[in-house]
């Protein structure tokens, strides 16, 4: 899939908008998203499921800007939520309740009750105790609830330890043996409808292999449940499809996403099961549509390193600090073929506040703008006001038009919030 970002006459464009010209007129830093890129990702996901009874759900945790959520809703997506807050948000945005799935290792009684009352598609249950609690609440409300157990298939997703979830050392899910005991018990409970199997093996997975192993697991497990007379009607495949964090937009043929490589293989493997297929996708929907744009404040040099100090920081995008995540960083204006090796760092008082280490980049000077790429997922959603830095704005490019979709929150807004 081709990206919506490209260079023309040395300037970086998003759709028909010259980003260097746009950045000169804004206060920096800010997030900027491409509508076209987002819709293209949604379409590729929907196409991967064509021919199956497929419900793609968007994982709100990746980015919950309401304008972006409405665009995703209008592409026919449901929502994957992990808290009462996300459920409330998804409903306010207008995701139909019957297209919402609720996951999470620690749902409170109030959250379970809220979900059952709302009549969402299903709850993904993560432990024997949570199953009991859900049955108790459903009985009290006299409302039968559709559930899936999140089974931990012990598959290595070959991704960063903090975002790998399908191994037994992870806190997520229920072991196969325990799930095989719990399903028949749940099927005998008048208030539980254990109609699904849920898996999610991790995030930012860039190869088919772990998903193909998951296909085998799901088919085997579904047949074990059939033997035990547990009538399964759907599979919840989780999310986890990776994106290309190394695209520098110089070559339009470099793929931005692994959706079309991985998702059809995952879905096709399960098509013949005749079961409904639900997916929970965050990063692959929104990551590649977003950039974090920031301005160079200073250059500085020590005997060992050259630093480029920019006005964005780890409080705006924590992925490099938290997971040593690589994000390509590109200049909004290409003005040299030369390269120098630098660390790109923010102003926050932490050595962990960096966006790149020992990166070969075009020499940058005070006032230059750069874009940290593929920042649409787990960027603004994980932002904080650490060091009392304000919330930064978010813009959406639609062709030549740029809309403000979040104006940010100033320090005085934050102060007033405490004092009210
Ligand atoms: N379903 C479940 C149960 C999940 O835990 C997650 C993500 C998803 C779906 C969506 O996964 P995706 O399609 O986005 O890979 N902050 C980290 C990623 C944390 C992922 C948490 N769970 C990062 O920035 O890499």
The coarse overall form would be: globular
CATH superfamily of the largest domain: Alanine racemase
> What is the alpha-carbon Rg in Å?
23 Å
* Distinct small molecules bound, one entry per kind: ligand LLP
Mean pLDDT: 95
Q: Which class of secondary structure composition applies to the elements?
A: alpha/beta
Q: Helix count? A: 12
Largest sheet: 9 strands, mixed
* Beta strand count: 20
Query: The CATH topology of the largest domain, please?
Result: TIM Barrel
Q: Provide the low-confidence segments as ranges.
A: none
Distance between the termini: 48 Å
Integer tally of domains? 2
| Fraction of residues in helix | 25-40%
Strand content: 15-25%
Structure overview:
With 420 residues, the protein is an alpha/beta fold. It has 2 domains: 5-32 and 288-419, Beta Barrel (Lyase, Ornithine Decarboxylase, Chain A, domain 1), CATH 2.40.37; 35-285, Alanine racemase (TIM Barrel, Alpha-Beta Barrel), CATH 3.20.20. Helix content is 30%, strand content 25%. It contains 12 helices and 20 strands. The protein has helices at residues 19-24, 35-48, 66-74, 84-93, 109-118, 128-141, 176-187, 209-227, 259-271, 283-286, 319-323, 411-419; strands at residues 5-8, 11-14, 17-18, 30-34, 54-59, 78-81, 100-102, 122-125, 145-150, 192-198, 234-236, 276-281, 290-301, 306-310, 329-331, 340-345, 354-361, 369-372, 394-398, 401-406. The chain binds ligand LLP.
